[in-house]
């Protein structure tokens, strides 16, 4: 297994898909990384040489915020919203959807199970 940014990337995946296992790297960023390093996009992670892996690692460290740094930055941004008591911060505190979604019938992932909120089950 290749290890990039503290994450083990599975060997059986193509490089583009394998890089998305890193928090903060999606398909688009993975494609950019592959193009900039000059790696063949059809290669599997197991077929990468140590030099190719180190070039990906170096490019990620220099140009992108990933994993712990990105999580910390997002967490601090949410904490700041909650401290200044803006609407979005208040929604985060209450555990409700933040981006304008309706809560009357859906939003179960944010609000929790139906049984806990006083809705009777049959």
Beta fraction of the residues? under 5%
Question: Approximately how much helix is present in the residues?
Answer: 40-55%
How are the strands of the biggest sheet laid out side by side? 1-2
Q: What is the number of strand segments?
A: 2
Gyration radius (Cα, Å) is 20 Å
Shape: elongated
Class by alpha and beta content:
mainly alpha
Which residue ranges are poorly predicted, with pLDDT under 50 across at least 5 consecutive positions? none
CATH class of the largest domain reads Mainly Alpha
**Overall residue-averaged pLDDT value:** 87
Helix-strand pattern, N to C? EEHHHHHH
CATH architecture term of the largest domain: Orthogonal Bundle
Could you name the CATH topology of the largest domain? Helicase, Ruva Protein, domain 3
Number of helices: 6
Largest sheet: 2 strands, antiparallel
How far apart the termini lie comes to 49 Å
Count of the separate structural domains: 2
Task: Write a concise keyword list for the protein shown above.
single chain, 122 residues, mainly alpha, 30s ribosomal protein s13, domain 2, 6 helices, elongated
Structural description of this entry:
There is one protein chain. With 122 residues, the chain is mainly alpha-helical. It folds into 2 domains: 63 residues, Helicase, Ruva Protein, domain 3 (Orthogonal Bundle), CATH 1.10.8.50; 35 residues, Irregular (30s ribosomal protein s13, domain 2). The protein is built from 6 helices and 2 strands; from the N terminus they run ββαααααα. Strands 1-2 form a two-stranded antiparallel ribbon. Strand 1 and strand 2 form a beta hairpin. It comes from Mucispirillum schaedleri ASF457.
């Amino acid at each position: 297994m290749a290890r990039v940014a503290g994450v083990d990337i599975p060997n059986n995946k193509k490089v583009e898909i394998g890089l998305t296992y890193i928090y903060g790297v999606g398909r688009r960023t993975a494609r950019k990384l592959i193009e900039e390093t000059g790696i063949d996009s059809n290669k599997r992670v197991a077929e990468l040489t140590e030099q190719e892996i180190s070039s990906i690692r170096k490019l990620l460290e220099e140009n992108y915020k990933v994993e712990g740094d990105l999580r910390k930055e997002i967490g601090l941004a949410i904490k700041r919203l909650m401290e200044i008591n803006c609407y979005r911060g208040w929604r985060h505190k209450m555990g409700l959807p933040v981006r304008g979604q309706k809560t009357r019938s859906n939003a179960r992932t944010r609000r929790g199970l139906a049984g806990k909120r006083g809705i009777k089950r049959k």
